[in-house]
Amino acid sequence: MALQKKLRAILTDEGVLIKSQSHHMFNKHGQLRSGDSLSLLSCLSCLDDGTLSSDGGSFDEDDSLELLPLNTTIPFNRILNAKYVNAGQKGPSNGKMFSDPFQTENLSSSSENDEIENHSLSNDKAPVNEPHLSSSKNRWDTKTSNLKATPDSSPDAPPSLGIKDNQQLIELTFAVPKGHDVIPQKLTLLIDHVSRKPRINASGERIPSGTVEEILEKSYENSRRNRSILVIINPHGGKGTAKTLFLTKARPILIESGCKIEIAYTKYARHAIDIAKDLDISKYDTIACASGDGIPYEVINGLYRRPDRVEAFNKLAVTQLPCGSGNAMSISCHWTNNPSYAALCLVKSIETRIDLMCCSQPSYMNEWPRLSFLSQTYGVIAESDINTEFIRWMGPIRFNLGVAFNIIQGKKYPCEVFVKYAAKSKKELKVHFLENKDRNKGCLTFEPNSDPNSSLDLPSKSNKNNNTKNELSPNFLNEDNFKLKYPMTEPVPSDWEKMDPELTDNLTIFYTGKMPYIAKDTKFFPAALPADGTIDLVITDARIPVTKMTPILLSLDKGSHVLEPEVIHSKILAYKIIPKVESGLFSVDGEKFPLEPLQVEIMPMLCKTLLRNGRYIDTEFESM
């Protein structure tokens, strides 16, 4: 059977559609020979495990044919990379032999046991070097080695491989589920394609877009291609598994996507602060924290302490690859707690600005206030989080046990609280949420880059959803964005409200945050939005009977606890809390803070991060 009949495919609006069967690594169910599920659903937004999409309907359990089903679509959101199989392949515009100018050899790798130290990051980062994807050993038999020139080929011309002018032999790399993860796989296809999307070359001429470039443009629509990533790993994170999780699950996806990676390992407490404070920001566009939530907190605060912090926050996106015990950032932003799926979301996500919160206390406010991306808490939650560190080996259940123990004891944490409200009542909060929930939907559209020597895409100037000042422009932030509106050295403003002492003297939970999830299965702030300019506030009273408090705590996984009449739920701009107890603590992004007055205010759109589909995970708050 001729190659064209066995491996032919076409481009569609959804992806690459297989139009002929081939003996391959798939059985006729679209499963890997090992039996692991392969999801090739032609749904642009779906990144979850699923079954193969096929026009052939359902199949029985006979695996004998091992055929890739007809009309299988490899969706663009699964495609990591594409390249012409031979450098001498005919081009789409004039029939000349050429290599694709958009394919850059920027990948690097090193084995886990062959790490080269780089002294520019305190001697703690290892460049990751990967050989170019066109390896001579293709572990999939694509039946391309025996191709011959057609009879009409001239002896002096490069071999045409029997391929027509509208066909391209292309190696496609895409993500497939295997077990609980996604892994990169390669497939060589003969693609019938007539370019419908011209591009502008360096001379301003309109030329047909190459097949590979068109595939990559559609695969990375709204996303930045070929990222330069500094990965910061806490080797002790995730019960000591963070390094292994990154190298085995996240790194393969990033490498096959064309990302350039350098690795820095933390060696002591707060080391990530020093790494972020001292790194050369010209080398990267992304910092990926392969850790729990502690390293993103440190990175953000390290960037905040730089003399060029404006440039750093304008340029760098800070994201998380979930390799720790607490992965709230990844769950909220990438919609997953799995490192491999998070890596896939990282390369496909939309760059978006999110709000941060600035915390001030007397012991450090004159040095450096602390930035918070996740939450601050006082009372039962803080003690249950920090004071159960000694049983961290138990996993998330340690937190639940701590909360239950303190609730049953009826512990209360008296304090004074002053608040600047944005939406005080639950009705006002719902209105605010509905008005702001779609603010980040499709917030960026990346235009094709006309310079073939550059791997960066430019934000579209025509996007209707952008603010009057482009959020991702190099000059979006200036030093004024870092100035506090309510310095702690000044008296509490007159337009702040003091909360009822009857409530604050009997306070059990005081919790403020900016991301919907604070841990896996704990949707504490279901109305949290990336950049609505507010902080979510949740408060409970120690006088609530245990019989009513129990169902409140049991509904944290659904987020419906905020609907209970006993729970105070508001949107605020700033607050000050003054503890009245002699011993205790605050927890900020999971870090222990001293028991002293704490003042916090919103810092609008200060941090650039990566959000799947440009928004937080859907909490279903709208339908609650």
Number of domains: 3
Please give the alpha-carbon distance between the first and last residues: 58 Å
CATH architecture of the largest domain: Sandwich
What proportion strand? 15-25%
Rounded Rg: 27 Å
GO molecular function: ATP binding; sphingosine kinase activity
Organism: Saccharomyces paradoxus (Yeast)
GO cellular component, one term: Golgi membrane
Enzyme class: transferase
Give an account of the 3D structure.
The protein is 19% helix and 24% strand. The chain is an alpha+beta fold. The chain has three domains: 1-85 and 134-205, no CATH class; 105-132 and 220-348, 3-Layer(aba) Sandwich (Rossmann fold); 370-438 and 482-603, Tumour Suppressor Smad4 (Sandwich), CATH 2.60.200.40. Strands 14, 15, 16, 17, 20, 21, 22, 23, 24, 25 and 26 form an eleven-stranded antiparallel sheet that branches. A six-stranded mixed sheet has the order 3-2-1-7-6-4. Helix 5 crosses helix 6 (294-304) and helix 10 (380-386) crosses helix 11 (397-409). The longest helix has 15 residues, at 242-256. The termini are far apart.
